[in-house]
Amino acid sequence: MKALLVIDVQNGIVELGDFTNELLRMENIIKDFKASGNPVIFMRHIDASEESPLCRSSVGSELHPSLKDYADVVIEKSTPSSFYQTELSRTLDQLGVKQLFLVGFETEFCCMFTAIAAFDRGYEVTLIMDAVGTTNTERSYDMPGLRINDFVSKVLGWSSVIEVINHVKYVEAYKTQGL
């Protein structure tokens, strides 16, 4: 079975940039998974610091209203890896999931760490590169010209163990052939 993991689509992240295209792609992919009866699991990052926009009591930590109603399961996490000290592995095992598709936010942290951790646990992993986004920029890393999504996608793709595709390839390879 396949499952879609929607990582950190929360108010405190979405409000920090223009993620209109990413959110639309995520919604289309979610609808595909729902239509095929495959589970859609949302990860919700919770920070311990009360100053964080993702602290438990803040509106920023809540799932973004454009997608939250699609969640079959919501699992909280407190590190970049969706697997570390969470119920994700057990949930996936109970559902019989063998392949994970990843979309969401904080590409270079939460998406990348989760993709690697999923592979380490034996899952087939597919990252949909234009359905992920980050609040960071080339300025965040003092690396002029850095395109974070492209860099992470290349690194994961070069690994030869994590499939990295764009939305068009996803539609061709998975939607048209049936999830």
Quick rundown:
With 179 residues, the chain is an alpha/beta fold. The chain has a single domain, classed as Rossmann fold (3-Layer(aba) Sandwich), CATH 3.40.50.
Top keywords for this entry?
179 residues, alpha/beta, Rossmann fold, 6-stranded parallel beta sheet
Structure, described:
The protein has 179 residues and is α/β, with parallel strands linked by helices. Helix content is 35%, strand content 21%. It is globular and about 45 Å long. 39% of the residues are buried.
CATH homologous superfamily title: Isochorismatase-like
The share of residues in helices is: 25-40%
What global shape is seen?
globular
Largest sheet: 6 strands, parallel
CA(first)-CA(last) distance: 9 Å
Uncertain ranges: none
Structural Rg:
15 Å
Number of strands: 6
SS element count, helices: 6
Overall CATH architecture: 3-Layer(aba) Sandwich
Task: Write down the CATH topology.
Answer: Rossmann fold
- Proportion of residues in extended strands: 15-25%
CATH class: Alpha Beta
Indicate the mean pLDDT. Answer: 92
SSE pattern: EHHEEHEHEHEH
Number of domains: 1
Largest sheet, order of strands side by side? 3-2-1-4-5-6
Structural class: alpha/beta
Task: Walk me through the topology.
Elements: E1 2-7, H1 11-14, H2 20-35, E2 40-45, E3 73-77, H3 88-95, E4 99-105, H4 107-120, E5 124-133, H5 148-158, E6 162-165, H6 167-175
Parallel strand pairs: 1-2, 1-4, 2-3, 4-5, 5-6
Helix pairs in contact: 4-5
